[in-house]
């Protein structure tokens, strides 16, 4: 344990000298921060760090960079998924790399001015995003690939063919993807203070998107069967499942944790 809100799980056989054969997966939420180390040769998850209820996820990354020896290792590849309110999805047929800056006019908050593109070829769109200045500075600790926060969820959603609502929880926030006919209909992130606020956002989605009770519900992140969030969903939906990674990763280091806790983090391994 690192402090009351964080946990660091390390495979006792992990040798930091093997970092050049590993990927570092990083997920920076609005108020959470997590990372995983995955050996690309053995497909073994060597470490997972997670901190919930940060004051600021990007600031936590900056702080950890000063003290965490595992973040400074020379990895084969670094993949970083970051929360930002400044993003827009562009259909592939409308996307032009020469005209990226024109999309910044649709961003809702001040940003660094650096634009990134996350390609979602499976669903037929690209996500163009920019980050707050302090976040942009934080994620440039390595020459890694930058992704929108929902990148892991989108990678998980690629295996779904049915109508589905996918919800990824941290202690204080929620990311959502709604799919219909193998198309992304809606995606959004919310900060949630209590169960009443969660119920409000849920009802807004149900009503505006015409989601019925037979929709398949998939949960990942910090949520448990019969907790208040799970029971709230049961009021409106018939089928609720926990979403786990469907790949060959050896996750023995997480054997004492619920299997769905870090699905969206580990799914970054699948992102190109």
Structural overview:
- With 272 residues, this protein is of the alpha/beta class.
- It has a domain at 160-242: Nucleotidyltransferase, domain 5, CATH 3.30.420.260.
- It has helices spanning 57-67, 133-139, 151-157, 195-209, 228-234, 263-266, and strands at residues 6-10, 22-28, 33-39, 44-51, 77-82, 87-91, 116-120, 125-129, 145-148, 164-169, 173-180, 183-191, 216-221, 239-242.
- It has a six-stranded mixed beta sheet with strand order 1-4-3-2-5-9.
- Strand 2 (22-28) and strand 3 form a beta hairpin.
- Helix 4 (195-209) packs parallel to helix 5 (228-234).
- It is globular and about 50 Å long.
- The mean pLDDT is 90.
- InterPro entries: DUF3822 (IPR024213).
- It comes from Pedobacter polaris.
- This is DUF3822 family protein.
Order of helices and strands: EEEEHEEEEHEHEEEHEHEH
- Report the strand count: 14
What is the assigned CATH homologous superfamily of one domain?
A: Protein of unknown function DUF3822, C-terminal domain
**Given the helix and strand composition, which structural class is it?**
alpha/beta
Q: Give the helix level as a range of percent.
A: 10-25%
Range of strand content: 25-35%
The CATH topology of one domain turns out to be: Nucleotidyltransferase, domain 5
Q: Outline the low-pLDDT stretches.
A: none
Average pLDDT, rounded to a whole number, is 90
What is the approximate shape?
A: globular
Return Rg in Å.
18 Å
What is the CATH architecture annotation of one domain?
Answer: 2-Layer Sandwich
Whole-Å distance between the termini? 32 Å
Largest sheet: 6 strands, mixed
